[in-house]
Write a sequence for this structure.
């Protein structure tokens, strides 16, 4: 890929600007590295945000029709039911809890008196808009944009008024997988805690489970054409499974979130991608590579996964025996069908980004290359623009979009700006 030198220089410029703005006395805290090197997702968010947001902004802009938004929100009832647990979480640790809708507008908050005053100063309160276009780099905007949990610490925030904060966010999804909003726990940076994200994930899991419990049943008969189901329904062959593994990792069985360890999610992902199944030896190599891991360890992981998915996993050759709706396989199917638009829309992030399993690494690279090459082969500039939005340093994609756009098309300016930003000398 061209433009690596420009990418490195742009990253160095952003990191220099960041280090200049780090508050005095900032130290390492928990599992966060502070005051040293910007993470890749923070660099990319800053590059996007600096074009839209003034770092000197003192508070978030407000939104209208808030009361009706909250009244109509599918999150209102599960969050209300969980209010006591959320209140206990914020009171015990000195945090403020917030729930947004899919646009990043805060609909609900809970906090103690001191944190409430701090939050209100920056409009971290109902009605405040915290998407990236409104408040730049922050955990809520990253969770919404990338569809996976995000932590932003102190000066990683673009807006300087937030440099005293640490924020932990995770997206909340409907039983069909649509992002409905974000749950966030925030506090002053000196209160950062390594268990805060685990708390957020657990609370989101509870909210999603309640959403699944109250989801309306699919009617047995309908008038007119039947809508396509968002996920496979249960069949005589076994329970319905749904797996998200692009940009984040989560699985559901019959609409109920599964509590799986990272290794079990890796196994489920590999078996979803390897539709003919894997032998014990191949699966062990895909998970552990050359590490001296015994067959007993693999059998234990597979046994736990088999129990979690209702036994829908063959044992002689490891293979799933029930339909699985998987975002990664949907992207592959779209590419095989020549539907680049569906593939770009579905490719929301790298495959299991936290995994270092050899088999996952191979599939991750395969998917990334396949989608990118399909974009470069397409003649629709909108696909290159959409892909380039999530890959701001891919100069070749921005150049491709610019070449395809006709003179007079206002989007040429977007493509040109992205080219300059990604290839700056």
């Amino acid at each position: 890929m061209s433009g690596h030198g420009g990418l490195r220089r742009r990253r160095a410029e952003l990191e220099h600007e960041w280090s200049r703005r780090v508050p005095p006395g900032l130290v390492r805290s928990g599992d966060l590295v502070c005051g040293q090197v910007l993470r890749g997702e923070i660099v990319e968010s800053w590059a996007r945000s600096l074009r839209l947001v003034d770092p000197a902004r003192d508070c978030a802009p407000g939104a209208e029709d808030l009361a009706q938004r909250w009244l109509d929100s599918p999150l209102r009832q599960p969050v209300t039911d969980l209010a006591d647990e959320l209140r206990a979480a914020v009171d015990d640790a000195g945090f403020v809890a917030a729930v947004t809708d899919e646009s990043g507008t805060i609909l609900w908050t809970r906090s103690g008196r001191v944190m409430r005053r701090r939050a209100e100063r920056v409009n971290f309160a109902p009605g405040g808009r915290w998407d990236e276009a409104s408040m730049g780099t922050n955990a809520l905007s990253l969770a919404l944009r990338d569809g996976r949990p995000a932590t932003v610490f102190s000066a990683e925030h673009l807006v300087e008024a937030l440099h005293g904060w640490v924020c932990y966010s995770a997206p909340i999804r409907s039983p069909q997988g649509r992002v409905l909003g974000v749950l966030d726990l925030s506090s002053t940076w000196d209160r950062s805690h390594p268990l805060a994200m685990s708390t957020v994930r657990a609370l989101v899991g509870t909210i999603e489970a309640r959403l699944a419990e109250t989801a309306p049943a699919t009617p047995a008969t309908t008038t007119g054409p039947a809508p396509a189901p968002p996920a496979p329904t249960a069949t005589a062959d076994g329970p319905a499974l749904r797996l998200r593994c692009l940009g984040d990792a989560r699985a559901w069985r019959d609409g109920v979130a599964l509590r799986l360890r990272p290794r079990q999610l890796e196994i489920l992902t590999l078996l979803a991608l390897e539709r003919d199944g894997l032998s014990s030896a191949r699966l062990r190599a895909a998970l552990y590579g050359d590490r001296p891991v015994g067959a007993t360890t693999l059998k234990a992981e597979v046994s736990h996964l088999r129990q979690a998915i209702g036994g829908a996993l063959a044992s002689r050759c490891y293979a799933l025996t029930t339909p699985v709706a998987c975002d990664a396989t949907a992207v592959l199917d779209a590419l095989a069908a020549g539907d680049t638009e569906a593939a770009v829309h579905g490719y929301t992030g790298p495959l299991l980004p936290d995994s270092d399993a050899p088999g996952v690494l191979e599939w991750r690279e395969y998917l990334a290359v396949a989608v990118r090459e399909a974009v470069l082969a397409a003649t629709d500039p909108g696909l290159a623009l959409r892909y380039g939005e999530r890959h701001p340093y891919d100069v070749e994609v921005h150049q491709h979009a610019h070449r395809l756009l006709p003179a007079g098309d206002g989007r040429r300016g977007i493509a040109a700006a992205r080219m300059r930003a990604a290839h700056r000398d």
About this structure: The radius of gyration is 22 Å. DSSP finds 18 helices and eleven strands in the chain. The longest helix spans residues 358-377.
